[in-house]
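An instance noted here:
***
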Amino acid sequence: MSPPPPRKGDRIAKLLARAGVASRREVERMIAEGRVALDGKPVETPATVLASLRGVTVDGKPVAATEATRLFAFHKPSGLLTAERDPAGRPTIYTALKNALPKGAPRLMPVGRLDFTTEGLLLLTNDGGLKRALELPVSGVPRTYRARAFGKVTQAMLDELIGGVTIEGVNYGRIEADLERGSGLNRWVQMTLREGKNREVRRVLEHLGLEVSRLIRTAYGPFVLGDLAKGAAFEVRKEELERFHSTLKGSSAGRGTDRRPAKPPAASPGGSREARGRDTPQAKRSRRGPPPAPGAARRPPSPSRGGPKK
C-alpha cells in the first residue's frame, strides 16, 4: 500500500510568522502554551501543515489576513531591551516605537537584536519570512558597527580578523575591521561582519584586549542609519525593499505584493563619508579580499574620525 501523498501547504509556525503574528520561535512557544487553535481546538505541534490560516485563532482572536511586507528602520537608543516585554520591568523598544511609528503601522518584529546598551540601526518588519532571511548567516547580509574601544590596538591586529577568529571554541567568520584616525587609548573601530552571532563585536574586541565603552550599529545590508535621530523611525521605500529582497538568499517567496523600502539617509553617524586615506586603494583591496558578488549588499563607506561624542 502506497503512503498517502504529502499535504500541500506550509507549517503553521511559518504561516503565522509570515502573517506577522510573531517570529517562528515565538510562535512555537505560543503553540506550546496552548494559545493557538484551529477550528476551536488547540494546535499541538508547530509542524502542523495548512494551506491557509482560515480557522486559526491566536488567544481566541482570528488571524488577520496577511498584509503586504513592510520594513522600518529605527534608531534604537541605549537603555532599551530588544524584546516585547521584560519580566524585570526594563523599558523595551516597543515603548519608544509607540511614538516613533506612524498611525496604522502593522505589528512589527525586530530583525536580530541589539543589546540593552547597544544603540543604532534596528530593522523591523511584519514579515516573518523576511526577518528570518535577513538574520540567517547563509544570506551573507553585512552588519556594520562602530565601537569605541579602550586599549592598545593597531590596524595590523585588526587585519588578522579578515580570516575569522576562534574564541573559546566559537568560530567567528570574516570580519572587516578598520581603525579610524586618532590617537591615545580611546579609539573608534569600524567592523563589518556577516554572521551576527551573540555579542560578536564585543567578544572579538575583548579578545584583542580592548574594552568597549560604546557600540553603534550603523548599517544592516544596504540600509544605513545616517542622521536618523535617536528614538525615531522611518519606513523603507517599497521600490528599495523590492530591489533588495530580490537579491536576498534564503528569503520566502513573499506575499504577492510590490515590496520595496524607504530610502535611508545617506550619511553615517559621527561625520562625513570622507576616505581615511591610510593606505592605497590597491592595498585596501588586497587586505579586504575579493569584491562582493553581483547583487550583494554593499558595505557603507567609513565615517570620519573622532566619532560621536557621548
Q: What stands out?
A: The first strand starts at residue 10 and ends at 11. Helices lie at 12-18, 24-32, 93-100, 128-135, 155-159, 200-207, 238-245, 281-288. Residues 10-62 form a domain with the Structural Genomics Hypothetical 15.5 Kd Protein In mrcA-pckA Intergenic Region; Chain A fold (CATH 3.10.290.10). Residues 252-310 have pLDDT under 50 and may be disordered.
